[in-house]
Write a structure and sequence with these properties.
Blueprint lengths: L1 H42 L3 E14 L22 H4 L4 E11 L6 E21 L5 E9 L8 E13 L2 E22 L10 E24 L3 E6 L1 H5 L6 E5 L2 E32 L3 E31 L2 E2 L5 E5 L6 E21 L3 E17 L7 E17 L1
Antiparallel strand pairs: 1-2, 1-16, 2-3, 3-6, 4-5, 5-8, 6-7, 7-10, 8-9, 9-12, 10-11, 11-13, 11-14, 14-15, 15-16
Length: 401
């Protein structure tokens, strides 16, 4: 009877040893799992540096300089209007950078980013005609020593071009923009786009500064100026030599504009950035879809200072060496200086793709940012002007432990 009892005791011992071993293994795995998580967190970069650029289209609606005095016929209609070349540049190349920090064992991240861009445009356009000399015939009645009884004579007069009809446009425009952001964000994805996706809500402060300069000079002569070379009837009167220049009447017009405009403001900002993987993994390269939106409300000061002047001259016909000119000038406009506090809403967004690794990322896509009623684009009176930046972007990010 003792043998069966010994066998049962052996089986009970084996079961106890198996149960004890399994429990010890589970406890070991449980104890080790926080260490593995900490190891994963330790391998995750805490600091990210991002550098990139954007080809920005510029939304610029400043008032066009178009003095009535230089419209047709004061500016010949055969020439293209100056407004076509007065406008500022439509594009700029922006540079941006971002520094992010995410502490260990935290869903919070802190970042500072900057965007800077500038553009300039200088155009000089000269338009003119190319007149040829011509002979003008007319009849004149006069009394001379050779013909005391007088008579009607056919006289020819050669007109030699001195100055052509022309229109000059010289326009220089430049602008600069600077945007600075400080934000704190928390990942609130909760797996809504998958376990490897992220959805971050950020809030912080945005600072923006815009400035622009405009210098325009316009000139035009609507008449082509010429000299009469031969005046035989004056010789017959015994007054002058037959070969003397006699200038025709002509007009000359000019206008100029200088404008300096700026905005500087700061205010709260809110943004939402999301990312969802669709191919690969972070060890070998993971492709993700990125998108986001941002809004802010900036409180700042808007300034504008403009000055413009128009001059017209009428030159009466006269002798070459004794010109008779009647000059008139429109009253010089005073400098228009305006400054006021404004509230500027700002709305933007982006969409793109990224190739992501554990400690690096390359991104490209399309981004837009609009600041409503930020600038005073008027000349004599205030004119609200939106300032916008939109276009393709590319960036490279590197992570550090």
């Amino acid at each position: 009877m003792s043998e069966p009892i010994n066998k049962n005791d052996n089986r009970a011992t084996i079961r106890w040893k198996l149960l004890t071993g399994a429990s010890a293994l589970a406890l070991t795995a449980y104890v080790a799992s926080p260490g593995l998580a900490e190891a994963d967190d330790a391998s995750r970069p805490q600091i990210w540096i991002e550098l990139g650029g954007q080809l920005s289209g510029l939304d610029d609606g400043q008032e066009t300089f178009s003095p009535k005095f230089l419209n047709s016929p004061a500016r010949p209609s055969i020439f293209s209007p100056s407004q076509k070349v007065e406008g500022p540049s439509h594009f700029s190349i922006d540079k941006n950078g971002k520094l992010s920090f995410q502490p260990d064992n935290s869903d919070w991240a802190f970042s500072a980013s900057v965007q800077y861009g500038r553009s300039s445009r200088k155009r000089q356009v000269h338009q003119q005609t190319y007149p040829q000399p011509f002979v003008k015939y007319y009849y004149n009645s006069y009394v001379s020593r050779s013909n005391p009884n007088g008579g009607r004579h056919k006289v020819h007069n050669t007109a030699w071009p001195k100055n052509a009809k022309f229109a000059d446009t010289d326009a220089q425009n430049s602008e600069r923009h600077f945007i600075l952001d400080f934000q704190a964000g928390k990942d609130v994805g909760l797996g809504m786009f998958g376990s490897a996706a992220s959805s971050t809500v950020n809030f912080g402060v945005r600072f923006a500064q815009f400035s622009s300069k405009t210098d325009i000079a316009l000139k035009s002569n609507p008449d082509w100026q010429f000299d009469y070379k031969y005046l035989p009837f004056l010789k017959n009167y015994g007054l002058l030599s037959s070969k003397i220049a006699y200038g025709s009447a002509y007009h000359s017009n000019a206008a100029s504009l200088t404008a300096r405009r700026s905005f500087r403001g700061v205010g709260p900002s809110l943004s939402w950035n999301a990312s969802a993987p669709f191919a690969g993994d972070v060890q070998n390269g993971q492709l993700t879809v990125d998108w986001g939106i941002n809004v802010s409300l900036l409180f700042g000061r808007q300034r504008a200072r403009t000055h413009h002047q128009t001059i017209g001259r009428y030159h009466a016909p006269g002798l070459k060496y004794h010109p008779r000119a009647i000059t008139y000038q429109n009253p010089v406009t005073p400098d228009h200086t305006r400054s006021r506090n404004v509230t500027v809403p700002n709305v933007g967004g982006f969409a793109g793709l990224s190739l992501r690794y554990e400690d690096a990322k390359v991104s490209f896509g399309y981004k837009a940012d609009f600041f409503f009623n930020a600038m005073d684009g008027g000349i004599d009176t205030r004119k609200n002007e939106n300032r916008g930046f939109f276009g393709p972007y590319v960036s490279i990010s590197v992570g550090f432990p």
